[in-house]
Amino acid sequence: MMMLLLACAVGKDVVLYTVEELQEEIEGYEDWAQPAGWGGAVPSCDGTHGPFVEIWYNAVTLQALSAGEPTMPEGAILVKQAFSDDGITKTSMTTMRKVSGFAPDDGDWFWGQFDADGTALTSGAVSGCAGCHAASDQDFLMFPDSPVVSDPSECP
Ligand code: HEC
Predict the structure, then answer these.
(1) Residue 45 domain boundaries
(2) Residue 2 Cα, ligand 1 centroid: separation in angstroms?
(3) How far, in Å, is the centroid of ligand 1 from the Cα of 13?
(4) How confident is the model at residue 66 (pLDDT cuts 50, 70, 90)?
(5) Predicted model pTM
(6) Residue 126 in contact with residue 111, Cβ under 8 Å?
(7) Is 42 exposed, middle or buried (0-12, 13-18, 19+ CB in 10 A)?
(8) Domain for residue 66, yes or no?
């Protein structure tokens, strides 16, 4: 009986994606395309990840957004680098990767947060990340509705 239960539990625990895969996939992200207004360290009026941020997305994301897709396809990745008050010193880096079937209730996004050295702080189905991003009306993406300003004093 014990063995049977164990076998069932293991069988259900299918690993769809890992933080190591994410780290590999985002290599060289600083050469990826950037959403208009989010290149260079720009003020984040929200400030959750830091006072200044910069955002990149991969080709899969760019193509889907350009085509006006309401939801991002498998393989879509977005990366956001946060900077401290000086707008130069990198603090944490956050990323989200669409993994079909990974978290159906939370848009199938795999979340990852790394410190300035690239060490993973948190990853996977992170409810704190999904909880806030769920406010988006565009598949958990926040930048499309976030104000783009050149100075923090311009934030609404
Ligand atoms: C309280 C709200 C909030 C929480 C919690 C949050 N985010 Fe965000 N996130 C935002 C906002 C707002 C933006 C848009 C850019 C900005 O204003 O900084 C954003 C942008 C992003 C982006 C760029 C793509 C996009 O959606 O615009 C990534 C990647 C990201 N967040 C990852 C994460 C990860 C990983 C976590 C959890 C560790 C997380 N976020 C937690 C509010 C949040």
Answers:
(1) 18-146
(2) 43
(3) 28
(4) very high
(5) 0.93
(6) yes
(7) buried
(8) yes
Instruction: Round to whole Å and give the CA distance between 64 and 58.
Output: 10
What atom in ligand 1 is closest to the CA of residue 96? 29
Report pLDDT digits (tens) over 15-36: 899 999 999 999 999 999 999 9
DSSP one-letter string for 9-61: HHHH------HHHHHHHTTTGGGSB--TT-SSSEE-SS-SS-SEEEEEE-HHH
Q: Is residue 76 part of a domain?
A: yes
Residue of 66, 44, 43, 39 lying closest to 55 (CA atoms): 39
- Give the per-residue pLDDT at 139: 98
Ligand 1 probe mutation, 38, 46, 49, 129, most atoms within 8 A of CB: 49
**Is 2 among the domain residues?**
no
What is the per-residue pLDDT across 42-54, written as a single tens digit (0 to 9) for each?
A: 999 999 999 999 9
In a domain, 60, yes or no: yes
Count of domains for the chain: 1
User: Of all atoms in ligand 1, which is nearest to the CA of residue 79?
Assistant: 29
**Among 46, 79, 84, which is best to mutate for testing ligand 1, by the most ligand atoms less than 8 A from CB?**
46
Taking CA atoms only, the protein residue closest to ligand 1 atom 13 is: 142
